Hints:
single chain, five-stranded mixed sheet, 2 domains, 73% helix
Amino acid sequence: MTPLLVAILVLLAAAVALLLGRTRADAGAAVEQRFAELQRGLERADRLVRDEMSRNREETAASLARVTQALDQRLAQVQRGLGEMQTLAEGVGDLKRVLTNVKTRGVLGEWQLQALLEQLLTPDQFARNVKPNPARDTIVEFAIRIPAHGGDGGMWLPVDSKYPAEDYARLFDAQERADAPAVAAAQKALAVAVRRAADDIRAKYLDPPNTTDYAILFLPSEGLFAEVVRLPGLVEALSAECRVMIAGPTTFATLLNCLQMGFRSMALAQRSEEVWRLLGAVRTEFGKFGDAVSGAQKKLSLAADAVEQIAVRARAMDRRLRDVEQLPAGDDSAPPMLTP
């Protein structure tokens, strides 16, 4: 190997070493720069994540607070509802205890019946505690006054309230349990109770002509009325055999409206008859007035004839007086006047 080649190799080795050292230095600087940028990026991402987590935490805390408040409100409402339900349950228990008392139950039916009568009729169209037959001591709760044609006299329409609560409650419980035999037994017992009440009304309160030939059995519950009407043949049998008509609150209100219209029609008919009688009396008086006018006219004619005769005589006297000669003034032949 020659010294020149050795020198060239040495120079090449030195150049390669120099190039390698520079490349390593540049690579290290680039790596450090990339690492620094990566670190700064990670720090920014960390800050963003922390900020987002902070906002989410605040929003979550606010949402949890709102949900907690809503839950508190709902729980308070539920608690109030439970208190109201408890109060309602106590009231229902009190009402059930009241309805088990026959006297109190009858008073409630009478109160509802009286409210309907006072609402739909005038005070002179019904009465309370009426004695249908003066010869007996039986008293009906309410009676509607049916006026007679012409306004004289009239008759009563008896109305009695009944509420077989025990039989109705047993029927309702049997229907809730879907117990067919119990439902049939309860329906039979309810029919017997209603028929017994109808027989009692017919025996005590129907007394034509003091009363109408039928009466009204008022049931103060729409549910009870529906169950009674649902019983096959009961309503028709009570109407035909006992002369008693079943009515619930709505049916009774409709009946009262019909009676009120009938009362008004009868009052209009009576007023029409009164008007016709008044017109007849006026016509009679008008005829008498015509006769009086004719008589006065005749008398006026006679008076006019008499006045005409007087006028004729006055004219005749005037003609005669014209022939009398008037004496001149200062005539001595005139008779002397007497002096006192």
